[in-house]
Amino acid sequence: STGKIATAASAVCGDNLPASFEPYIQQLNTAVAQAPDASNLTDCSIRVTLIPSQDASVIANIPLMVIERGQPISSVDTQPDNEQVLQQVLSQTNFRLVTNMLNWSTMNNRLSDNTRVYLTGESIALYADLTALADMTTRETLANMLRQQPLPVMQKPGSQIRLISTDQFWLSPWFWGMVVITVFLIVGYRYYLLALQSVTLDSKNYELDLKNQELTSLKDRIQKRNQELEYLSTHDSMTGLLNRPFFEQMVEREQNRAYRSGQPLSLLLLDLDHFKQINDNFGHTEGDNVLKETAALLRKHLRSVDLIARWGGEEFTILLPDTPVHIAYELAERLRQHLANLLLPPVGHITCSIGVTGFEAKEKFEKVFLRADRALYQAKETRNAVVASELETI
Ligand SMILES: Nc1nc2c(ncn2[C@@H]2O[C@H](COP(=O)(O)OP(=O)(O)OP(=O)(O)O)[C@@H](O)[C@H]2O)c(=O)[nH]1
């Protein structure tokens, strides 16, 4: 009511309420009276605070801003344009004007911030701390000031200033902007984690590949080494022929096979003649060379199924599968001739003696070997000769 407004004004200014305030208060009263729901204004208050200027006449020139309930500012055509009002206030740097028309039951909390202006479609209040505005050197308009508010509640379609209440915040572009950014951040973070996981997996896979390669190469080396060891354990290192223990193993296997198949099996025992003289005359290296050449010659003239071994020193054993003793004899004779014909500088020609025998069914190898050795012994009587034990008895 007018009385209340006058009381409020007096409470601020006391008895010193300048006469020039009269039109101002009149204007306020008129606005309140014209408000569509003026009858309900019992729970509203209007506060006008003026800090006097040196020049009181200025006050009379400041119209009151009144916003009616439920109406945007621009539609209050009984009042001057708000920006115009503001410009007028701002031009008076010595003035401080705070104007409130409050519905305390709904707006109290929202109007507690003195640094902001709130104007809403449903608002019944304009709250302006014009101290802040008056201190602004750039003389920005109310619209500009509102635009700079940090609260995301402002909208200005055309010249109309409209703030969206924080209750409707979810409608604002700020809200949806934040939703989109949040979604992007979540999705982006998920992709980042996936990428990180993939990089980690790649590096682990790479390490595993390397380990696998190392293991494969190690396995190959072990396999190769095993083959070498097996070769060394079964072969004579100088001539590359089978060694004696392995030859004996193989004989047993071949004997079984021959007995099963009923095929004949023969044995040659070959010994180089006067080998000691070769060592004595030409040295051990030349002696070794003769042994290697002999081995090569035997390999050359025998079949791949024949087993050739260095029995020891300058003595060789040859097992001939599927070979009857008379064929073995002929073969031994050819070997003897080949060796006798071989020229080995600086040693020259060498000769050998060979004992030949055949295997009887289920006969022990020691017995067969003894027979071949006896035949060799006989051949050694003349040297450069072949003697077959069976032929001898036939
Ligand atoms: N260079 C060389 N000589 C060896 C090797 N193994 C054994 N000998 C030699 O072979 C010779 C064998 O001599 P003997 O057993 O008397 O036989 P031989 O001189 O051939 O006489 P006959 O067999 O009766 O014709 C010895 O001097 C051994 O030192 C070897 O691996 N290398």
From TrEMBL:
<keyword id="KW-1133">Transmembrane helix</keyword>
<protein>
    <recommendedName>
        <fullName>diguanylate cyclase</fullName>
        <ecNumber>2.7.7.65</ecNumber>
    </recommendedName>
</protein>
<keyword id="KW-0732">Signal</keyword>
<dbReference type="Pfam" id="PF00990">
    <property type="entry name" value="GGDEF"/>
</dbReference>
<keyword id="KW-0472">Membrane</keyword>
<keyword id="KW-0812">Transmembrane</keyword>
<feature type="transmembrane region" description="Helical">
    <location>
        <begin position="174"/>
        <end position="194"/>
    </location>
</feature>
<dbReference type="InterPro" id="IPR043128">
    <property type="entry name" value="Rev_trsase/Diguanyl_cyclase"/>
</dbReference>
<dbReference type="InterPro" id="IPR000160">
    <property type="entry name" value="GGDEF_dom"/>
</dbReference>
<feature type="domain" description="GGDEF">
    <location>
        <begin position="263"/>
        <end position="391"/>
    </location>
</feature>
<dbReference type="InterPro" id="IPR050469">
    <property type="entry name" value="Diguanylate_Cyclase"/>
</dbReference>
<dbReference type="InterPro" id="IPR029787">
    <property type="entry name" value="Nucleotide_cyclase"/>
</dbReference>
